[in-house]
Design a protein that fits this description.
296 residues; alpha+beta; Phosphatase 2c, domain 1; 5-stranded antiparallel beta sheet; 12 strands; 31% helix; globular
C-alpha cells in the first residue's frame, strides 16, 4: 500500500462555489472496435438536506435548502473481457461510492483539518472493493480474471482528494499549463522508475497498457493525494481510451478553448475516435465559473 501523498495546487481565494458555479459533464463511448463498453463512471454530489415533515410556519424558503458537502467524479476501466470487465468496473464504482460516502460522513463529524484518517479510509475503500471482486471471481468462473482501474476525485472545498488504482488519469489545467496529477500504475512506468526504460521508451512499449496495480487484480496499491482547489483550474478524469489516441498537447488545446464541459468532452471524444477509437473511452471534465457574488 502506498502512503498518502500531498500535492500543492495554488488557490486564488476561499469563496466556496455554489451549484450555479459548477460546469461539469461526463460521457462514455464503446469506441470503434469493441462491442461492449467495460468502462463505468459517476459524477455526483453528497448533500446535506433539511426535509420538513410538518410545521405551522407559513414560509420555509429561508429554512429549507440543500448544502453540498462534497463533489465526486469517478472513472473505472474494466479488464477481463466483456461481461467480466464491465462487472468489475460496475462493482468498483458502486462499492467505492458506498464506502466513501460512509467515510465522508465521519470526515464531517470529525476534524476536517486532521484528515490523515480520512485518507487512510479512502485507501481502505479501494482495498475492500478489491477483496470483494476477488471473492466474486472465485465464486463465479465467468468472472475470473476480472479487474478494473479506479480514479476518484473528491472535492471538499477548498481541499480535494484523489484516489487512484491503475492507469485511468486525472489532469489539472491552470493558466494554460496541463499537469497529469495521477501516476500510471503500469509495468512500463515501473520500468521507468527502475531506470530500465526512458519516458519515450515507456510510451511506445507493449508494457504501457499492462497494469501493475488494479482492483481485483493480483495486486492493488491505492494511491491517495491531497490537493488545494482553485477557481481557475479545469479538471479532467479519463480512461486510457482517450489518452492512447489523444496527446497531452491536444488535450491542453481543447481545454484551453472549451466553451463548456459538455462541448469539450464531446470534442475530446471525437479526437479519440478520429485517432482510431481502439478502446472504450470515458471522459469527465469539470470547472468553476463564478456566476455568483461573494457572500450570496
Amino acid at each position: 500500500m502506498t502512503s498518502p501523498q500531498s500535492v500543492a495546487v495554488h488557490s486564488d481565494g476561499d469563496q466556496r462555489p455554489l451549484e450555479a458555479d459548477l460546469d461539469v459533464f461526463g460521457l462514455t463511448h464503446p469506441g470503434l472496435v469493441r462491442k461492449n463498453n467495460e468502462d463505468h463512471f459517476l459524477v455526483c454530489a453528497l448533500e446535506k438536506r433539511m426535509q420538513v415533515s410538518h410545521t405551522s410556519l407559513p414560509d420555509l424558503s429561508h429554512l429549507a435548502g440543500v448544502e453540498r458537502l462534497a463533489f465526486i467524479s469517478m472513472v473505472a476501466d474494466g479488464v477481463g473481457g466483456a461481461a467480466a470487465g464491465e462487472e468489475a468496473s460496475r462493482m468498483a464504482v458502486e462499492g467505492v461510492t458506498r464506502y466513501v460516502s460512509q467515510a465522508l460522513h465521519c470526515y464531517f463529524t470529525g476534524d476536517p483539518s486532521n484528515d490523515a484518517g480520512f485518507m487512510r479510509e479512502l485507501e481502505d475503500a479501494a482495498l475492500k472493493v478489491h477483496n470483494e471482486l476477488a471473492t466474486a471471481a472465485s465464486d463465479d468462473s465467468s468472472l475470473r480474471g476480472m479487474a478494473t482501474t479506479l480514479t476518484l476525485w473528491i472535492g471538499v472545498w477548498p481541499t480535494a482528494y484523489l484516489l487512484q488504482v491503475g492507469d485511468s488519469r486525472c489532469y489539472l489545467m491552470s493558466k494554460g499549463k496541463l499537469i497529469q496529477i495521477s501516476r500510471d500504475q503500469t509495468v512500463a512506468e515501473e520500468l521507468v522508475d527502475k531506470g530500465v526504460f526512458t519516458r519515450d521508451d515507456a510510451a511506445n512499449s507493449r508494457f504501457a497498457h499492462i497494469l501493475s496495480s488494479a482492483i481485483g487484480g493480483q495486486e492493488a496499491a491505492p494511491i491517495v493525494r491531497r490537493l488545494e482547489q482553485a477557481w481557475d483550474t479545469i479538471g479532467l478524469v479519463c480512461s486510457d481510451g482517450l489518452t492512447r489516441h489523444v496527446t497531452d498537447e491536444r488535450i491542453r488545446e481543447q481545454l484551453a478553448s472549451m466553451t463548456s464541459a459538455r462541448q469539450v468532452c464531446e470534442a475530446l471524444l471525437q479526437d479519440a475516435l478520429d485517432g482510431g477509437g481502439q478502446d472504450n473511452i470515458t471522459i469527465i471534465v469539470g470547472r468553476l465559473i463564478p456566476r455568483t457574488q461573494p457572500g450570496v
